[in-house]
Known about the structure:
The chain is of the alpha+beta class. It has five helices and nine strands. The relative contact order is 0.20.
Amino acid sequence: WIALDDAQPSNVLHVVDELVNYALALVEDKTETIWTADKKTAKLISQGSPVNLKDVWMWVGRVPHTAYGHDIPCVKSQGLVHMSPKRIAELLMDSSKVKTYNKHSQGRSDKVVWQTGIDTLQGTFGNGETKVVRSVNKAPLVRKPLEFICLMHARQIQDVDNGITHGSYVVVARTVSGPVTQDIENKPSVPNEVLLNVHLLKAVEGTPNQTNMININHLKSPIVPMMVAKKVGLASASGFLNDIRTLSAKE
């Protein structure tokens, strides 16, 4: 993250590329050494049930490294949403729309915008949209609001041949600090951190207005005791996906 300090396009591009690569590897990893399904999800899997528009599949995991934050549990959720991947990606990147799908949000604002347009290709800052945002959320079971300053990025997903897989997108976020945030007033007094936030928005073949949505939430906050971090993470992840579904039903 030191590479972001001077906000040079090549450095920002490198950081977001590495963030996307790490996020996709973690999302696609299905090994039990990382992810453990909750009871309901384990039952659905054992029954051979497909991912659907009703259930929220949930896993709790540990990141596959021993670096900073490895001791904090992360949560993965999955389910179908009746909305196109591009529409969801645009919605997630639009700070003015956060409260329409996130009932725990108390607002989000753009602080540094490097590049707009989730379909941007080979722009000054690479592919996709990249910015720094400030957000305030009221998490379940936590009395105080959680404030975050994060790098956010969204793009179309590229395949191994560098071609674009049209219809699928990824949105990632990670807390940042240092010179890139020096002009942001009233920074959070409590160092809450988004260690990783991922939304993989996969196109459903034959159903253009439907998305197989896979999310990962990995948060660190001194306000959230370790003993309830797992419970808070599961409640937040399930509520988020269902809130997106509720919004999709209105559109």
